[in-house]
Amino acid sequence: MDLISTLRRSLGSDWIITDPEIVAKYSSDWTGRFQGNVVCVVRPTNCWQIEKTIQIARRLGIALVTQGGNTSLVGGATPVREAVVLSSEKLDDLEIDTVSKSAVVGAGVTLETLNDAARPFGLKFAVDLASRGSATIGGMISTNAGGIHVIKYGSTRHQIIGIEAVFGNSKVISRMEGLVKDNTGYDWASILCGSEGTLGVITRAIVRLVEIPLHRTVGLIALSSLDDAVELQMDLRKSFEGIDAIELMTASGIELVGKIHPTRFPLDNVTPFTLLAEVTGSQSYELELAEFLDRHPVVTDAVIRCDSQGEGLWLWRELHSEAIAREGLAHKLDVSVPLLVVSEFVRSLEDLISSGYTGISPVIFGHLGDGNIHINLLGEAIDDELDHEIFALVAGFGGSISAEHGIGRAKVSEMSLTRSPDDIEMMQALKRICDPSMILNPGVLFPDL
Ligand SMILES: Cc1cc2nc3c(=O)[nH]c(=O)nc-3n(C[C@H](O)[C@H](O)[C@H](O)COP(=O)(O)OP(=O)(O)OC[C@H]3O[C@@H](n4cnc5c(N)ncnc54)[C@H](O)[C@@H]3O)c2cc1C
Q: Ligand 1: which residue has its CA nearest to atom 7?
């Protein structure tokens, strides 16, 4: 019996999609850079169906790629070779626990749906990203997503207090007690965070929720240099304890966003660098932030908006990925370096590009508070060699070649720049135990072994 008949017989026809038009949606990534050969899509509703799918895939030797919202920017959810896509869409349980301020969430629930359910109780998930309408909790755990509030709350890893997953060896691990303290051996949630679908399929999680602050004060701040931006972010953090976000933009990014943004840029001029800072609390910080920015010597101009009006300023930052995508196929390098060397790193990056790669325009933005810079390379024919040189530069500065998006397919050959041979060997040993037939996401994180 062939693969599709076997899946249909074991799981029921309702859960298998073979219509080529629908399957095509699962075959390429958000950026359009990565394509895959998808035989069919399985949309399980429970662990049993996932176990069965894994057993069939192992028996028939077919790859299985778990896909959530398909917003990966590194091709992590797009098959490298012929594969069945296991979509988490139907894993959609959602229950808010207002007493312990947590939620039981199916892996396929989007961040936006979780927040919509938590909002009436004054609660939200602490990690936030511009892809919130599509990115799922399973995808966010499996990439350990970061986003705009890491300086305050940490990344997805820090929000997980329970996990359930079916591993590639068909074993089901369920740690769904929701205990804040539990040091009884290896922590599967931590192991699955950042595993990028290579060890198991996450089915449910218990996540912490935080209170939605009563007031938000958002400032958009004009600056002349990156050194000034780094200095200002340090002073903002000293003056506003628990600051929520410090985001960096550059003139080239703002100009691209200007092409699709419905309104005019709120500052008089677009300066080489712009910071967006958000401070929240039970009171408005409008006066304090205005006084601070007025006094600060590096600030050339600023505008402040409060509460829902702040969204208009945020849009200038959040539309960056979309504005860049409209310009063509970008190479997206998401890196981090220690804050102390951010300026020197960006200068070296600009030197590298201008000295050997004409016709390439880098658009830089990111989460400056975390030393996380998103480098977007636009141009006619972007050479993979440039990506490699940039990653080598990052490694030379003691940074990470993937601050938050993961390794996916895009950076597999670069792992050894920042992880040692022993380190990689240990990760591969863990992979072999959890996924002995090597069917889960082959070609992601490691070469197709
Ligand atoms: C506009 C935009 C803005 C973004 N901003 C940020 C940002 O600020 N910070 C950030 O960290 N990322 C950001 N991203 C990247 C992306 O949204 C995140 O990586 C997100 O966590 C991916 O979630 P997803 O559900 O779309 O996962 P997918 O793209 O579907 O999958 C990502 C990886 O997770 C695996 N996976 C998915 N679901 C499961 C599961 N249930 N079990 C096991 N493995 C699974 C996949 O196999 C794949 O390897 C952004 C993307 C876009 C398009």
A: 147
The Cα 320–Cα 253 span in angstroms is 6
Distance 140 CA to ligand 1 centre (A): 5
Under CATH, to which class is 215-320 assigned? alpha beta
In the chain, which residues fall in CATH 3.30.43.10? 3-89
Q: Is 168 in the pocket of ligand 1 (CB under 6 A)?
A: no
Q: How is residue 180 annotated by DSSP? A: S
75 in ligand 1 pocket by Cβ < 6 Å? no
Q: Among 87, 142, 434, 446, which is best to mutate for testing ligand 1, by the most ligand atoms less than 8 A from CB?
A: 142
Q: Where in the chain is the domain with CATH 3.30.70.2190?
A: 215-320
DSSP-derived secondary structure for 332-347: EEEEE--GGGHHHHHH
E strand or H helix that includes residue 369: none
Residue 380 pLDDT grade (very low, low, confident, very high; cuts 50, 70, 90): confident
pTM above the 0.85 mark? yes
pLDDT tens sequence across 343-378: 999 999 999 999 988 889 999 999 999 999 999 999
